[in-house]
Amino acid sequence: MDLSQPLDPLAKTALWTASMRAREHRRADRLFSDPLAEAFAGDEGPRIMSQFEGHVQSGVEDPALAVRTRFLDDQLLRLDADGVRQFVFVAVGMDSRAFRLEWSPGVLVYELDRPALLSFKEDLVRDLHAPATAVRVPLGVDLLGDWTEPLLAAGFDPQQPTCWLVEGLLYFLEPRERDVLLRQLTDLSAAKSRLLADYVGQAILDSPGMAAWRERMADQGHPWKSGSDRPEELFAPLGWEVHVSAYGDPDADYGRWSDAAVAPGLSGTRGRYLVIADKQ
Fold first, then answer.
1. Domains (range + CATH), the chain
2. Segment 217-266, tens digit of pLDDT
3. Given CB 3.0 to 4.6 Å as the disulfide criterion, which of 69, 83, 111, 183 pairs with 92?
4. Strand, coil or helix: what is 5?
């Protein structure tokens, strides 16, 4: 399927992510099921995936996306089971969790992203006749501008515990943009809210082994702009109690991380992180 409307380079990374999830869905030993991912990726997603894996990763399939997706799926469903009924997916892209996860009745999922990308996604959802498994509220917003007012106007209740999912976003932001976003999320978070995110270490980002990756990302119009070697220090001053896992840790492995190739010059795999932050 061709893109029916133009998407900017950063928005196209959502198609790439969907393509990787579609590939995982096809595996006999898949870590999660995502039957919509192939349609959401279209023709462009596999093209971008092939380009990066062929020219930057030397044909090696990076398991990070599969591990990250399963890790976050488990966290989301655990919160649902604990009674959280308000979820906000920040920079949702072509994520299909509002369709594929088994949510409890009454769960609200707010999907935030750029208007053009969400419009494209809504056209696909309509064409596919895909039923949501939660009460889904898509909101086209500028996450670097005023997005809190549209969220509140759509029914978001800042007095209720919320789960914020910030996946595949923070490293695309300048440090100041990242810090402003985290402050905005904090200001809207009631006690017992949780924030789920992924991030990359600055040392690994600046390492020689990442040079080709960063150059390719920049050339394609979506550079990685920030990282942190101690991501907990970004959240703790805002009042969050933070647990950080690195890919390959016992809770973020799923039998896949041993297959990952570590670029020459990098000391191990610590440096790519999954963050769980709880508001006290």
1. 63-279 (3.40.50.150)
2. 787 777 889 999 999 999 999 999 999 999 989 999 999 887 444 443 44
3. 111
4. coil
